[in-house]
Specification:
Blueprint: H1 12-19, H2 26-31, H3 36-51, H4 59-73, H5 87-97
Helix pairs in contact: 1-5, 3-4
Length: about 120
């Protein structure tokens, strides 16, 4: 796992995620420290979309763009590991980290599945 100093700009999303872990899945919280570079790339693209004047956008579109871009720009063994279940949490974390841009993404209400529904 990368070692981010708690006071660096890169560590801010980790700190905010920890403070709001009740709004994020346990799996996402486990995934984030090793994949912070993915969140930071997501944040960069979401900020660019917001600054272009869009009031709403798709978090999944940003993730698919990042997957495509990295597939072209990086070696095949460097493919990013992004589970589709992480996408909504990337968007939620973006809103937590960037309250002035909150509202760019729409959310479904999160519910916990019962064991009988799995």
């Amino acid at each position: 796992m990368p070692n981010y100093n708690d006071y660096t700009p890169e560590a801010l999303p980790l700190n905010i995620a920890r403070q709001n872990s009740d709004q994020l899945s346990a799996e996402f919280m486990e995934w984030l420290p090793d994949n912070l570079h993915i969140y930071l790339a997501f944040e960069k693209e979401a900020t660019a979309i917001f600054n272009s004047g869009r009031s709403h956008y798709s978090a999944r579109t940003i993730v698919e763009f990042l997957r495509h871009h990295t597939a072209i720009a990086e070696k095949p063994q460097c493919d990013w590991k992004i589970n589709d279940h992480s996408v909504p949490y990337l968007a939620r974390l973006f809103d937590m980290c960037n309250p002035s841009m909150a509202g760019l993404f729409n959310y479904r209400i999160l519910t916990k599945k019962k064991a009988s529904e799995l």
